[in-house]
Amino acid sequence: MPGFRFRRGLVAILALALIASAASAVWFISLETGKSRALAALDDELHVLARTVEGVIERFRYLPAVIARDRRILDVLASPEPATIERANAYLEAVRTDSGADELYVMKLDGLAVAASNHAEPTSFVGENYQYRPYFTDALARGEGRYYAVGATTGIPGYFLSSVIRDNSRVVGVAIVKVDMRKIEATWTDARSIVAVTDADGVVFLTGHAPWKYRPLQALSEETLFDLARTRKYGSADLAAANPIFSDAGRLPETALVDGEDARRLVLQVGIDPDGWRLLGLASLAPIRANSLLLALLTALAGLLIAGAGLYMRQRRQLTRARLHAHAELERRVVERTAELNRQVEDRRRAEAELRQAQESLIQAAKLAALGRMSAAIVHEVSQPLAAMENTLASTGLLASRGDAAAVADKVRSARDLVRRIQRTVKLLKSFARNEPVRLEPVDVDKAMAVAVELAAARATEQGAQVKLRKSSSPPSVLANTTRLEQVILNLVVNALDAVKERPEGEVELWSEHDGQRVRLFVRDNGIGIPEHLRDRIAEPEPFFTTKLTGEGLGLGLSISRAILDEFGGGMNFETREEGGCTFRIDLPVISENRLREAAE
């Protein structure tokens, strides 16, 4: 037994040593491979970015020579008078707008700017002297110049492209175009790698890493610092006090720490012609180290899994029995929970059915209540044509006794018109009062408003109010229930008539609007309006809340109207007017093929 235990311990130690060796080898190989791939990816990225920088500059390379040939530029250099200056300024401003350059300006041979595209701005170049700038001296010496610097007037950095201006082979001035490169810099802020552009002296002037801006890669010589200060290349930046980014002089390190980071970064650079710039890129080694560590851990884990396979096989039977027991227990709980859920679903179905039945009853009660409130006006609407028909029939008898057949026929037609009027009123009332099941269908909103207006016409006439309906040129349709939509509109019209009851010239107006997506129905009155303290309660209407006197309403109209509109996928709101009165708006979606299919299903 002791020998067996010794052998088992020795095998375990050898297995662990083998696993550790394999994990170490995987970690080293993965780290070196990751470095090579990261350097290759960084090199590709830097070459692409270098071409981008060159492209932004070369896009405007032609522009100084082009503006130097314009007659307006030659005129302002020959005679810088207000008229020539104004024409030159306007021309440069137009070229800036068309080309997308940052700024354009023209300088005389003494370095004084006489015209500029920003002539009307507080930071205008006009009247400033830039003879100390290398792009000016290079243009006079070689015919053209190029220079990156911080603007002495605006404080905004940019790349300056210059070209001499000749009038019949005689040099008369210098044309300059300023290119704003901050947009390129802004895209580097979110880059996965730190990217920076340095000038020929090693000073960083473009970078997405803010702490590096206007810092040298290595310490600068006194001569270089003096030259940068003389040309005011980087404005007020104190390069003499700036700490170098890398401590090694004369060469860049292969890896470096940035701003106290825990992980080192790979360092790579490529050149940008023709200014001697260098594009510097730093890729973090943290993902590579993490990936290498992960692979090593996976290797160790795989070895441990293989080593533990024997133990797993021995315990497999016990685990299987435990899983079977747990599975049986889970099935039992699932069956119990399913039965409980079925009971809850059935209870909810019964509650929803009872709720729908109660809602239908409330809707029908509200409809009958609305008819009851208009009963006197409806009786008048029916009794008036009946009285007129009685007089007509009496006149018909007299005319018949006289043998006047033409007059009798005319009276009979009048009587038939009165009967049709009564039939139309009764038909509308029967349709409105009928308790039909909810069935969505295409509804013409203008026709629905017309029905509501006709039902309320008698009451409006009784109280001396006017109900106006503005019909649209192309009546929209919505997916709704005709009777219920008419009920909602009628309820709003009746409420509006109640609001204008005390007005000597009460008026209710209805109209519809649509924009291809939504249909809006408006009911506006010039009544007394809604008091401020009641607006919140009416905006979210409570059942049985009413502002009318006891017995004049159930307080269900707006609450039920909102519930009906919810069924149609719509809504309702209102607003009061400063001149008095209130406007209610019904909002419904325009009918579509999808909604038609859903309603049919």
From TrEMBL:
Major subcellular location class: membrane
Q: Which reaction does it catalyse?
A: ATP + protein L-histidine = ADP + protein N-phospho-L-histidine
Keywords from the named record: ATP-binding, Cell membrane, Coiled coil, Kinase, Membrane, Nucleotide-binding, Phosphoprotein, Transferase, Transmembrane, Transmembrane helix, Two-component regulatory system
Per UniProt, subcellular location reads as: Cell membrane
Could you confirm whether the keyword Lipid biosynthesis appears in this record? no
Membrane protein topology class:
Multi-pass membrane protein
Q: What is its EC number?
A: 2.7.13.3
**Superkingdom of source:** Bacteria
Claim: Hydrolase is one of the keywords in the record: no
Please give the CDD domains that the UniProt record associates with this protein.
Answer: HATPase, HisKA
InterPro entries to which the protein is assigned, alphabetical: HATPase_C_sf (IPR036890), HATPase_dom (IPR003594), His_kinase_dom (IPR005467), HisK_dim/P_dom (IPR003661), Sensor-like_sf (IPR029151), Sig_transdc_His_kin-like_C (IPR004358), Sig_transdc_His_kinase_DctB (IPR017055)
List the residue ranges forming a coiled coil, or say none. 341-368
Q: Per the database record, which ranges form the Histidine kinase domain? A: 377-592
Where are its TM segments located? 293-313
Q: What would be an example GO MF term here?
A: ATP binding
Name this polypeptide is given: histidine kinase
